[in-house]
Amino acid sequence: MEDKTNGGGRGQILLEMKDIHIEGFSDETWHPMIKGVDLTLRRGEVLGLIGESGAGKSTLGKAAMGYTQPGCRLTGGSIMFDGMDLTRISRAQSKALWGTRIAYVAQSAAASFNPAHRLIDQTIRAANRARLRPEEDSRADAVELYTKLQLAAPETIGQRYPHQVSGGQLQRIMTAMAMSPRPDLIIFDEPTTALDVTTQVEVLSAMRSIVDEFDTAAIYITHDLAVVSQMADVIKVLRHGEEIEEAATTQMLTAPEEPYTKSLWSVRALEKPEETSADTILSVENIEAAYGATKVLNDVTIKVPRGRTVAVVGESGSGKSTVARVICGLLPQSRGQVSFNGQALPPALKDRSIDQLRRVQMIYQSADTAMNPRQTVGEIIGRPLEFYQGLTGSARDRRVIEMLKMIELDERFFDRLPSELSGGQKQRICIARALAAEPDLIICDEVTSALDQIVQEGILKLLLKLQKDLGISYLFITHDIAVVKAISDEIVVMYQGEVVEQGPKNQILEPPHPAYTDLLLSSVPQMDPNWLSNLLEEREAAVK
Amino acid sequence: MTEPSSPYSATSETGQTFKRRGRWERMKIALKKAPWSARLGMFVVFIYFFTAIFAPMIAPYGEAQVFPEPFAIWSAEHLLGTDQIGRDVFTRIIYGARNSMGIALVTTLLSFFIGGGLGLVAAIDRHWVDQGLSRMVDVLMAIPSLIFALMLLSIFGSSALNLILIIAVLDSTRVYRLTRAVAINVAVMDYVEVARLRGDGLGWIMRREILPNIMPPLVAEFGIRFCFVFLMIAALSFLGVGIQPPTADWGSMVRENASLIQFAKYDLKAAITPLLPAGAIAVLTVAVNFIVDWFLHQTSGLRDGR
Asked: What pLDDT does B21 receive?
């Protein structure tokens, strides 16, 4: 291992996986997860793996290290890494490879660091363990890597503990950790998915420049096409454990061949024509709210027109979800007023009448935690019918089935438990539960951000259709500008607990913008491989 | 729904691969895969309950029937001999299963009803109700429960009803703590918030939204608490304030015949006699723990990597 370099030259085949078959154990039997996928990676090349969740992209990425997670097994195929067959080498040999020659960057950096050790000690651990170079050199090198990754205060940041830095910084330090032993191959598993768009840009550019600089081969796993097109030289599309197609990035973006790939591309084209309405259903006036002593909302005023959609955008911590909590009565405001249908709503939940509760419904980001895992779909949708409309027995069941049809599912789902549904179906059930109350306003809190692109599109179309049919108003909280374009009539931009601006969609999206709106909008990844380079150039020029 | 070329439709989207099984079928599969320890535990518990229920039919004599010869040796007539006033030991062990286990079961159920109910209320209403209840429980727990029970029983008198009530209240503090701890994790879930936003009352949220999701740890705790209650009753009986004669009970049987142990050098069988009810308690405790261990392993998701 001593003479390990990135030698061998660019363009030589580093990793070759042939006819990979992986099975996963669930429900007492083994099910195929990866069904015969080939993968070839050359030195210095970045391969993007994309696909919806359950496509097997993470499983395949881990298999590239010769690793299968508990509950999975490799049943066929070979993994040649630099002349070694990773399926045949011993556990000890693979452990010597992991962390030093093959590194892994996980989605949740917070969960991947040990909270009890300083960051720099964790950064150089792999290099130390393999005794690649003296510890002092590794420390100096780590500081250099921090500098290259554009971390603030590179000399001292390593002395901190994981909880003392932000998510974006942690993700970059994790990249430094992966890079420290100068691996031949890095596997990035959705490294920016948990970050805000504005942070994502910084992390992406840092990761890309360092991968370029050391000419490291990488596999970049994500479900975000725009992100992958910034990073990858080659893109491979997976679905249901099978390869759909593989092509160079530019070719993949301009001329995808398979209908499935095309459909992935089309999602972002969804756009609702803007409509206005003078009739206001909900108005939030000069709201102030605090969690204990921390003030989170300051003089927030938002108006929602009847039968229209208002999108609230902003990064995490901007207070957009808190607005929803105030409107629902979960967090009574300390100042200001919430009016609904021209009537003031009591601040506290317990003071509101059943009818007031019925008219405002909420849909959550994570449908998993929003449904009781021990209740069937029929019970989940049936409860509001029973509670608000007093329907019981077969009348209730009939109505539940009508609701299921309304959300494009059918009576086969009546007896299922949430664990037996896919992500998109779960979110649809949550929508049906909200609809069952026959509300005037639905607050959607990041309802599509946990879903794959293609499922997102289905949910957004459903919401639009329901609005058209039933005249419901939406307050749509999101950080995804593509979603905003698809669904909203008006936009509210929030930053640090205050409203930056509110107005009709086209007016907000057209320049000129206030500085923060500009930063937010320009940070949204575009389906253009040169987008990130152009953006960075522009920002640099603006600074000078 | 969309243009026909779209490969996406909500109904065709498959969830995780699953086969829907009824409750019975799932239980049968789980039983089939149970380790030997759990099977043994279930077998033992089954025998105990069988004995308890059919005690009058199995026992050769009456519960309080006195024979002329006290401290009789083991014989065909008196399988395990007789005790200090001439009652058949074998018969009393069988009846003891009924009394000791019956009272322990009722006590445990009651303590879960009290502790579980209050724990759920505290977990949902995190303000003064939680504070008040939790501090009260702290006070109760600060006093060693055996001493406290002894004291209360000597104040109120040791009837079976008092015994049940006192031990149930003392034991419910532990149940309260557990229920509150696990219910808090569930009470912050979005679906509980959904129910609150809907206007559902405390009762609904407790019974329908939270309770079904915390059943596994509670059931496991039930098994363990049952053992502790059982031991506590035995200990109190041994001390003379538990189940009163002539009702047969394993704890008091140990005390009444304890002096026989001294005769071990003359007659080993006689010396074993007072240890038999103690052994019965020990075997039941181990058996219940075998089952609980297996159950916890099943439901907690603590699986070894395959």
From this structure: 59
List of chain A residues whose C-beta atoms are within 8 Å of the C-beta of residue B13: 422, 424-425, 455
Cis peptide, bond prior to residue B246, ω within 30 of zero: yes
Per-residue confidence (pLDDT) for residue B13, from 0 to 100: 57
Looking at the predicted structure, is the pLDDT value of residue B306 above 60? no
In a domain, B144, yes or no: yes
Nearest CB among A31, A374, A421 relative to B213 is that of A374
Least confident of A247-251, A424-428, A501-505, A520-524: A520-524
B276 occurs within a structural domain: yes
Q: Give me the mean pLDDT over the A339-349 stretch.
A: 89
The total of other beta-carbon atoms located within 10 Å of residue A465's CB is 14
A302 occurs within a structural domain: yes
Mutate one of A22, A372, A387, A388 to test the B interface: name it (highest B CB count within 10 A). A372
User: Does A373 sit behind a cis peptide bond, omega within 30 degrees of 0 on the bond before it?
Assistant: no
Classify residue B201: in a domain, yes or no. Answer: yes
Q: Which amino acid is at A380?
A: I
The region, left, alpha or beta by phi > 0 then psi within -120 to 50, assigned to residue A480 is beta
Q: What is the pLDDT of residue A66?
A: 84
Residues in CB range of A315: below 8 A, 6 or more apart: A196, A197, A198, A199, A479, A495, A520
On whether any CB of chain B is under 8 Å from the CB of A454, the answer is yes
A135 & A197 share domain:
yes
CB atoms within 10 A of CB B259: 11
Mapped onto helix, strand or coil, the DSSP state of residue A211 is helix
What pLDDT is attached to residue A6?
Answer: 43
Q: Nearest-CA distance from A178 to chain B in Å?
A: 26
Instruction: Report pTM.
Output: 0.77
What's the total number of domains in chain A?
A: 2
Q: Is residue A24 part of a domain?
A: yes
DSSP annotation string for B4-32 = TT----TTTS--S------HHHHHHHHHH
> What is the torsion angle, in degrees rounded to the nearest 10, for the CA atoms of residue A88, residue A90, residue A95 and residue A96?
-90
Q: Which residues of B touch A31 (CB under 8 A)?
A: 17
| Structure token digits, residue B137 | 């429980």
B interface residues, A as partner, C-beta within 8 Å = 1-2, 5-11, 13-20, 29, 189-191, 193-200, 208-209, 212-213, 305-306
Residues of A in contact with B186 (CB under 8 A): none
B292 three-class SS: helix
CATH number at residue B227: 1.10.3720.10
Note whether A212 contacts B: Cβ–Cβ < 8 A.
Answer: no
* ipTM value: 0.73
**Is residue B15 situated within a structural domain?**
no
Range of the domain at A36: 13-269
Residue A118 backbone class (left: φ over 0; alpha: ψ -120 to 50; beta: rest): beta
Q: What is the 3-state secondary structure (H, E, C) of A329-397?
A: CCCCCCEEEEEECCEECCCCHHHCCHHHHHHEEEECCCHHHHCCCCCCHHHHHHHHHHHHHCCCHHHHH
Mean pLDDT of chain B: 83
**Partner residue opposite A364 with nearest CB, options B8, B29, B190:** B190
